[in-house]
Amino acid sequence: MKPLSSLAALPGIVTARQYRREWLRDDITAGLVLTALLIPAGMGYAEAAGLPAYTGLYATIVPLLAYALCGPSRILVLGPDSSLAPLIAAAVLPLAVADDPATAIALAGVLGVLVGLILLLGGFLRLGFVTELLSKPIRLGYLNAIALIVLVGQVPKLLGFAVDADGLLGEIAEIGRALGSGAVQPLAAAVGLGSLAVIVGFRLLLPAVPGVLVAVVGAIVLSAAAGLTGDIGMVGALPSGFPLPSFGGVDWGAVGRLAGPAAGIALIAFADTGVLSRTFAARHGTEVNGNTEMKAIGVANIAGGLFGGFPISASGSRTPVAEQSGAHTQLAGVVGAAAVLLFVLVAPGVTAYLPDATLAAVVIVAASALIDVGGLVRMWRMSRVEFALAAAALLGVALVGVLQGILVAIGLSFLAVVVRAWQPYRTELVRTPARPGFHDIERHPDGHRIPGLVLVRFDAPLFFANGEIFDSYVRSVVARAPTPVEWVVVAAEPITGLDTTAVDELVDLDRFLESRGIRLAFAEMKGPIKDRLIRFGVGDRFGPGHFYPTVEAAVEAFGRRAES
């Protein structure tokens, strides 16, 4: 009975049992509308990943069905994504045999399974929080870099020529040389630029009509009618039937080399999916569990990898289409997957007339949606440090490599945190005539000190990097006090951490003050920090008499010192 009960608890089964008849028409309509984007987008992103275009359809069908069963979001659309395409290409193509698409497909499938296993394991270990490593500046820089990489990579296909270069700068240089030498194929460029104009034109003038579908169908009809198949590059006909699980030609050494890229892809895939899932759940007044989401994305990637696909994530372009088309549940995705499957089985020869240039136009328009120059400008205005992190992520991903750039940006984020904690805000506290309590002297220069008492605040945890800074700051405040100092009280509420190095600095400071007849005390120090002082063996030096529940209580105790 337990397996049956577990099966019944799957989100898709729960939704099916609660399904309302009035949702059916909207879900079917949304699924059919979605199909118009699923086919060209899937094929385009497959080519952007360096794989045969038809693998994008396999990476669309199976993950949609798997997520409909396991996914917690009712309208999230999964499939190939522009943000993952460069990562997949960087992982698979160096290991693939030249002119052997079967090996590349098998490697991409293995990569998808590895990504899925990592996500599935992460979900069971409740690691959904790891996406917090990808801060807003990193995501902003990463998405702009991905857009730049994809756009540059598609320009040769759009204009009908090929380049052979490593890295973004190498590609740009090769494209420049090709343009200067007249390598552009006029007919392919006309088809590609015409497709681009159709997509953009419909988006601007008739947004209700899917311009991508119009461009793709129009290009197919034009190619078939004008007999262009021998004149410009075509996507080619799909293989007959549907692929069975097969990883032929992939050895364990290749699997090991794919493990590192798989971890990076898993992180990005879940970060993108988690953000989208939470966003759309909030719009509809529902909640999505991050760990359940991670497991569902893992299952979808495993399923897709087994059946000829490659790593996938949630789509930021197709999910809004499903929502705007009236989707209520995962049935919309199921209908879309069924329609794509029907296309694969019934009309596989149609894509023999689809120009590569048109598919490049589809990818370029989709990738351009990732560009957010306005976001970079706003980041510059809000925080120069965070803008620098975004710029580091952008340049690292674009010039060094996607995974390496992300890791560098994460490292810089941690460094920025350390720097902020290393040089935190610190101030002396004073009384002001207009307000009760004690306030920052920098903001209230009209405040007055209490003779014989120094009040200081240090806005950071105390650890190895800033313990000496804290010590030096307190000594400097004591040295420049206008009257002889008898007590130093640290407003310790912002001190949320303490390590052994900082404890040594506290002891040195206490000895220094004690040698001058000055008492060191703490106000509002948190219980866990007091416990650490005891655990680090200095409980006798800093006994209960050194602590006060509030700054006011410490000041009152200072005022009573003569009486005692």
The largest sheet, given as strand count, sense and whether it forms a barrel, is: 6 strands, mixed
Mean pLDDT rating: 87
**Radius of gyration, in angstroms, nearest whole number:** 31 Å
What is the N-to-C succession of helices and strands? HHHHEHHHHHHHHEHHHHHHEEEHEHEHEH
- The strand line-up of the biggest sheet is 4-3-5-6-7-8
Multimerization status: single chain
Structural class: mainly alpha
How much of the residues is beta strand, in percent? 5-15%
Q: What distance separates the N and C termini?
A: 74 Å
Q: Assign an overall shape.
A: elongated
What is the number of strand segments? Answer: 8
Q: Counting H and I runs of at least 4 residues, what is the number of helices?
A: 22
Portion in helices: 55-70%
Low-confidence stretches: none
Write the layout of secondary structure elements.
Layout lengths: L1 H7 L2 H7 L6 H25 L6 H16 L7 E2 L5 H8 L8 H24 L11 H24 L7 H14 L5 H20 L5 H16 L25 H32 L6 H17 L6 E2 L3 H7 L6 H16 L9 H13 L4 H10 L1 H17 L1 H21 L3 E6 L6 E3 L12 E6 L8 H13 L7 E5 L8 H16 L3 E5 L3 H9 L11 E2 L2 H9 L5
Parallel strand pairs: 5-6, 6-7, 7-8
Antiparallel strand pairs: 1-2, 3-4, 3-5
Helix pairs in contact: 3-4, 3-13, 3-14, 3-15, 4-12, 4-14, 5-11, 6-11, 6-12, 7-8, 7-15, 7-16, 7-17, 9-10, 9-15, 11-12, 16-17, 17-18, 19-20
Report a brief summary of the structure.
With 564 residues, this protein is mostly helical. The chain is built from 22 helices and eight strands. Strand 6, helix 20 (500-515) and strand 7 form a beta-alpha-beta unit.
